[in-house]
Amino acid sequence: MKTRLLAISFFLTVFWAHSQNFIRPNEWKKYRREVYGSVGAANFLGDLGGLNRIGTDYSPIDLEMVETRTAFSLGYRYKIAKWFNVSAAFNYLIVKGDDRLTTEPFRNNRNINFKSNIFELAGRLEFVYMANRVGHRYGIKRTLSRRMKNRSWDFTAFVGIGGFYFNPKARDPKGNWVKLKPLHTEGQGLPGGPKQYSNYSVSIPMGIAYRIYFNRKVCVGLEANFRKTFTDYIDDVSGVYYDKSAIQKAYGSQAAYFADPSKGLIPGQTSAGNELTGAEAQMRGDSRQMDSYMSLQLTVGYLIKKKRGKTRLRSKF
Hints:
Layout: H1 2-18, E1 33-45, E2 69-81, E3 84-98, H2 105-110, E4 113-133, H3 144-149, E5 151-165, E6 169-171, E7 177-179, E8 200-214, E9 218-229, H4 244-251, H5 253-259, E10 292-304
Antiparallel strand pairs: 1-2, 1-10, 2-3, 3-4, 4-5, 5-8, 6-7, 8-9, 9-10
C-alpha cells in the first residue's frame, strides 16, 4: 500500500511540474539559449575484448559491458527554430578494452589491454520534435486535469562533427599503466612498418535524446551518442605483428613486451613475417575498421530567458 501511495505521489509531482512548462505555443522563443551538463557511461568498440566469438568486432553486440566507464559533458545550445537547434559541447570520456574478458581463443591468447581518456570538442545540428500541450490559457480552472495538459517535452535526433584527443595506455605485469604510442608496438618508424599515428582525430557524433521541461527554465533528459571516428589506434591496435626482436633492439624490452604480450597458447598466432621480403605477418588487429565510442548520459539543462528590450520614447515633433 505504501509503495502504491509513493508511486501515485511521484506521478502527481511530475504532472504538476509539467504544468509549469511552455503552455503557450510560442513560449519557446523566450528561451532560445541553454547551458547544460551531462553525466553517464561510456563504452568502446574496437579490436580488443568483446563477444566470445570472432566476426563480431565493431558491432554493437560486441560491447564489453563490464568495461563501461564514466562520461561527462558541458555544453551550450541555441534554438534557431522550434524544430532546429545548434549545439556545442566539451566531452570527457574514459574507454577501456581487455582481451582477458573474452573466451574467444584467439582474442584471449592475444592478451592485449588498454585504456584511454578522450577529450572531445564537438558541434552538432539537432532536429527536434517539441510537444506543448496547452490547458486553460489563464489558469483560472486550476484543476489536476488542466495541469496534466500543460506539459512540454521534446525528442531530438542529431548529427555533428568533432575533434578529439586520445592517449592509449596498457597495464604491465606489475599493474602499472604505461603509455603505448612512444613504444611503437606495431613497428612504427621501422623498415616496412606503418607511420606513427596521431593522438588527434575527427569524430562524427550521432544519436537521439529525450527531454522534459520543468518550470520553463530547467530540463532533464536522456541522451545516447555514438561516435564514428577516423582512427584505428584509440586502443593502439590496428595492423599486423612486427618482428619482436627488431622492436626490442630499436625501442627496448618494454616495447617488445607490449608489442606481443600473448599467452603463447596458439602456436604461430603472433609470429611476424619478414617485412623486408614482403612475407605476410599475422594479424594483430583489423585495420579495415575504424574505432568508435559511445555514451549514454543523463542531461540537465538551464534555459536562459530572453531579456525584454528597452522601450524608447519618441517625440511627436
